[in-house]
C-alpha cells in the first residue's frame, strides 16, 4: 500500500509526505529451516518520506529550496528471519533556480543541486545472509541543468 499527500501550508511552503507498507510473506521456499508465512526477507514493511519545499516570492521567486527526511524501516536479513537489518533515517536537501528570471533568453532553463544523505550516514541497506551485508549509498551531490519548452 502506498499513500502520498501534497499540501500547501502557506503561500510559499509546500509539504509532501508519503508512506509505504508492504506485507510480504514467504509462500513457498526450498531453503531448509525457512518457515512458510514468515515475513519476506530483504523486504522493508514500512517506509516514510517527508519533504518540505520553500518557494519564496519576489525578489527570489525563481528559487526553490527543500529539505527532506527518509525513513527506511527494519527488514529481515536472511531467509530464515534470524536477524534484522536496522532502520535508518536519512536527510536530504535541494536548491533550484529558474534561469529565465536572470535573462529572458533563458526562459525554461533551470539548474538544481541535490544532496542526499547529508550526514553521510553509514548504514546497512540489505543483507543476503548473516555474513553478506551491503552498505547503503553515502552522501551524494548531484547537479542538473534542465530545459522545458
Structural description of this entry:
With 149 residues, this protein is mainly β. The protein has one domain. The protein is 0% helix and 52% strand. It has no helices and eleven strands. It has strands spanning 2-10, 13-21, 46-54, 63-72, 75-76, 84-85, 88-98, 109-116, 124-129, 132-135, 140-147. The strands form three sheets. Strands 1-2-3-4-7-8-11 form a seven-stranded antiparallel β-sheet, with no helix packed on it. A hairpin with an 8-residue loop joins strand 3 (46-54) and strand 4 (63-72). It is elongated and about 65 Å long. The two termini are 35 Å apart.
Map the helices and strands.
Layout lengths: L1 E9 L2 E9 L24 E9 L8 E10 L2 E2 L7 E2 L2 E11 L10 E8 L7 E6 L2 E4 L4 E8 L2
Number of domains: 1
What is the 3D shape?
elongated
- Could you describe the largest sheet, including whether it forms a barrel? 7 strands, antiparallel
Low-confidence stretches: none
What is the number of helices?
Answer: 0
Q: Give the termini separation.
A: 35 Å
Q: What are the secondary-structure elements, in order, as H or E?
A: EEEEEEEEEEE
Radius of gyration of CA atoms, rounded to a whole number: 21 Å
- Spatial arrangement of strands, main beta sheet: 1-2-3-4-7-8-11
Mean pLDDT: 88
| Share in helix | under 10%
The total count of strands amounts to 11
Q: Tell me the structural class.
A: mainly beta
Portion of residues in beta strands equals: over 45%
Amino acid at each position: 500500500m502506498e499513500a502520498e499527500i501534497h499540501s500547501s501550508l502557506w503561500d510559499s511552503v509546500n509539504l509532501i509526505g508519503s508512506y509505504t507498507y508492504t506485507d510480504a510473506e514467504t509462500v513457498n521456499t526450498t531453503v531448509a529451516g525457512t518457515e512458510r508465512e514468515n515475513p519476506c526477507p530483504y523486504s522493508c514493511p514500512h517506509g516514510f518520506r517527508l519533504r518540505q519545499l520553500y518557494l519564496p516570492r519576489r525578489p527570489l521567486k525563481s528559487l526553490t529550496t527543500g529539505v527532506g527526511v527518509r525513513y527506511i524501516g527494519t527488514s529481515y536479513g536472511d531467509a530464515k528471519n534470524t536477524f534484522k537489518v536496522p532502520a535508518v533515517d536519512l536527510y536530504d536537501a535541494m536548491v533550484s533556480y529558474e534561469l529565465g528570471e536572470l535573462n529572458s533568453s533563458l526562459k525554461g532553463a533551470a539548474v538544481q543541486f541535490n544532496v542526499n544523505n547529508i550526514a553521510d550516514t553509514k548504514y546497512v541497506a540489505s543483507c543476503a545472509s548473516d555474513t553478506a551485508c551491503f552498505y547503503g549509498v553515502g552522501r551524494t551531490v548531484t547537479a542538473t541543468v534542465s530545459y522545458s519548452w
